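Sample pair:
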Amino acid sequence: MAESPTAAPVANFSAPMTNGLTFELSGRPARYTVLYFYPKDNTPGCTTESISFREAHPEFQGLGAEIYGISRDSLRSHENFKSKLGLPFELISDPDELVCTQFNVMKMKNMYGKQVRGVERSTFVIDAHGKLVKEWRGVKVNDHVAEVLEFLKSQP
């Protein structure tokens, strides 16, 4: 878990997301934008993490935060995943890894004894001015959503 020493500006980006919408970082009306990067739809850890964000969604909204999940999966996969889990927030599709590259979440990982390139589970909090105010990398699913909420509650 890395704390940003100073709030660093995040370059604007846009990407397709569920419900036929396009995510655009600049001009987001939310006080905070929470971007959680996860490896793959319909896998155990990603399902657990997404359900945790779903369950805490009202609390996030109460703190002025909007949540968005991001992976390399297609929009069709995202629509199915979102529907299956009843997610109240949109999922961003990044099959070309443009957003993943911008946030430096593509890593070599060990899977079943082989090196594979994939998304490192990470979460970023961006304020209304487009500044990165907190990041978590190499996230462990258990208690992560509670940590993000605690951080937001600690903000002035």
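Residues 1-5 have pLDDT under 50 and may be disordered.
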